[in-house]
Design a protein that fits this description.
5-stranded mixed β-sheet, two-stranded antiparallel sheet, Ubiquitin-like (UB roll), Fumarate Reductase Iron-sulfur Protein, Chain B, domain 2, alpha+beta, elongated, binds FE2/S2 (inorganic) cluster
Length: 252
């Protein structure tokens, strides 16, 4: 088994380079070496100008998502050895479909704008509940899925619809929107469904290609959340009436 690996990194500094290019670095590899360890080793001992994001090193902060051998993943929890081809080479590029700031760092402005567009916070209902909200397992599951998301951008940047339609909200934002739509405490259901049904950026723009599922490092299923939102939008009259009745039942 090889004790050395070649890290092939896509480099690009918009201040001096006309276009991206590949650069190879050789690093030592053990069973414990992660892709992030390897990049850090290159930066520390070979080329301090190599630029990438990372923070927690424990698959929590979501900042180290990159494209490795054509697949989006978190480099901090991926063993280097697992990603080497038969020649002992691994290719690392920035997340696709996003503007490159430098080397492996991308501009996530659109990603965060789409996230905020779905108002991911709880909108309080007009009534004040006097009894506790009892949530169904389905509602708890929606909450749990959305809270498990670490906003790394792997699903967003793997989505072929995002590649051609930057107005599309994207799987990360729609996953969060699903949580709020399912939340029995939320008072913004009608407003949310109006927004999610919009032509150019809403739920009907998903082509169910499901790259988001493959890319998610947390094993989430944004495609299922989007299809559930479509189902709820189809029967929204009944769904909204049920929500109003349920909230009224908590008063007095
Ligand atoms: S460094 Fe935080 S998720 Fe990888």
């Amino acid at each position: 088994m090889t004790n050395q690996a070649i890290i092939r990194v896509q480099r690009f500094n918009p201040d001096v380079d006309e276009k991206p290019y590949w650069q190879n670095f050789t690093v030592a590899v053990t069973d414990e070496t992660t892709l992030l360890n390897a990049l850090q080793e290159v930066k520390t001992t070979q080329d301090g100008s190599l630029t990438f994001r990372k923070s927690c090193r424990h698959a929590i902060c979501g900042s180290c998502a990159m494209n490795v051998n054509g697949r989006n993943l978190l480099v901090c929890n991926t063993p280097l050895r697992k990603m080497l081809d038969s020649r002992g080479v691994v290719e690392i590029r920035p997340l696709p479909y996003l503007p490159i700031i430098k080397d492996l760092v991308v501009d996530r402005t659109a990603f965060w704008e789409q996230y905020l567009a779905v108002k991911p916070w709880l909108i309080p209902p007009e009534m004040e509940a006097e009894k506790e909200y009892r949530m169904s397992q389905e509602e708890v599951d929606a909450l749990h899925e959305a809270e498990t998301c670490i906003m790394c951008g792997a699903c967003y940047s793997a989505c072929p619809v995002i590649a051609t339609n930057k107005r599309y909200l994207g799987p990360h934002a729609l996953q969060k929107a699903f949580q709020r739509v399912m939340d029995p405490r939320d008072g913004g259901l009608a407003e949310r469904l109006d927004m999610l049904e919009q032509d150019h950026y809403g739920i009907y723009n998903c082509h169910t290609i499901t790259e988001c599922i493959t890319a998610c490092p947390k094993g989430l299923n944004p495609a299922r959340a989007i299809s559930m939102l479509r189902y709820l939008a189809m029967r929204r009259e009944q769904f909204e009436a049920e929500r109003v009745e349920r909230q009224k039942g908590l008063v007095g």
